[in-house]
């Protein structure tokens, strides 16, 4: 079993509440728009960190982290891509990417809207954790926590971090 905290759209912001929610997991996935790569150093050190860049990330971030990341955990094929649209209206080329990579889970950010939906057409779980940062139009800062066991996502929950701007 692998415990995961899924975050996105930090826009250079990290606080103790986020760090606390990421302290009891095996992996932290950041789905882009880091804002300042230095904030990643505040995350727990004893976890696997999987990070992609988003549209606001600078060249320093892009030299370290990719725009797309694909990996498998317990037989589950996962892809991280910052801008993906949402089912059934994906961004250009995303449906083809899901099919080409054989993704069973597509993780994205960008919209600042927390959404989890199974796309039965592509047989792929779409996951967007919303935004943990203070910048954007979202009202409530959110992240997702879940476990992967036996090739399945289980015990999925949305963690609300409070209102943006507080």
Write the layout of secondary structure elements.
Blueprint: E1 2-7, H1 16-21, E2 27-31, E3 48-52, H2 59-64, E4 68-73, E5 76-81, E6 85-86, E7 89-90, H3 94-101, E8 105-107, E9 114-119, E10 124-129, E11 140-149, E12 152-163
Parallel strand pairs: 1-2, 2-3, 5-8, 8-10
Antiparallel strand pairs: 1-11, 4-5, 6-7, 9-10, 11-12
The CATH architecture category equals 4-Layer Sandwich
- Number of beta-strand segments: 12
Structural class: mainly beta
Specify the helix fraction band. Answer: 10-25%
- Give the number of domains: 1
Look at the structure and name the CATH superfamily. Metallo-dependent phosphatases
The largest sheet, given as strand count, sense and whether it forms a barrel, is: 5 strands, mixed
Strand fraction equals: 35-45%
Name the shape in a single word. Answer: globular
Strand order of the largest sheet: 3-2-1-11-12
Total helices: the number is 3
Radius of gyration: 15 Å
Query: N- to C-terminal separation?
Result: 35 Å
| Top-tier CATH class | Alpha Beta
Folded structure, characterized:
- The chain is mainly beta.
- It has one domain: Purple Acid Phosphatase, chain A, domain 2, CATH 3.60.21.
- It contains 3 helices and 12 strands, in the order βαββαββββαβββββ.
- The strands form 3 sheets. Strands 3-2-1-11-12 form a 5-stranded mixed beta sheet. Strands 4-5-8-10-9 form a 5-stranded mixed beta sheet, with no helix packed on it. Strands 6-7 form a two-stranded antiparallel sheet.
Short description:
The protein is mostly beta strands and 166 residues long.
